[in-house]
Write a structure and sequence with these properties.
mainly beta; 10 strands
Length: 157
């Protein structure tokens, strides 16, 4: 069962609090505007889900199913995405009660978030169920890549 917290429309003050809350969780890579600073990918297969700047961090509480037969977990760090066409790649389940769950379109191994029939354009992605594609920027990685003749690949964090 999924629990959704009540929320009102976001004001400028709310946006500031959202950005500040996301900034308190450094591994989420949140910009000053509260948006995702880097690409978001599936933590299991690496499939790109969102490009930078297409989701807004919000502290919302949802109960999301884990893998099949493993129960559910409470998620409180969420990315809000407006519209399914904003995603680079995503899959949706069939409707369950008043919602649809989202999953990686490539591996379909776990629930990554949810959308509600009452507001189908707003899609919530659990920030702790994805990884972040961070460009390698330290000198050691660049030097190692130069030694092999290859460009430094981005790293998953």
């Amino acid at each position: 069962i999924l629990r959704r917290t009540a929320f009102a429309s976001m004001t400028t003050a709310d946006a500031s609090m959202t950005a500040a809350a996301g900034a308190g969780v450094p591994h989420l890579h949140v910009t000053d505007e509260g948006k995702n600073a880097v690409a978001i990918v599936c933590r299991l297969c690496g499939c790109k889900i969102l490009t930078p700047g297409n989701a807004v961090y919000e502290s919302k509480i949802f109960e999301l199913p884990l893998r099949k037969g493993q129960g559910a977990a409470t998620e409180s760090h969420m990315w809000r995405v407006q519209g399914m066409m904003t995603f680079y790649n995503i899959g949706f389940t069939h409707g369950v009660e008043d919602r649809k769950f989202i999953t990686c379109a490539d591996c379909e191994q776990e629930v990554l978030g949810v959308t509600f029939h009452s507001d189908p354009e707003t899609i919530w992605v659990a920030a702790e169920r994805v990884k972040y594609l961070v460009p390698a920027d330290d000198a050691a990685t660049a030097a190692a890549a130069a030694d092999t003749g290859a460009g430094a690949p981005p790293s998953l964090s």
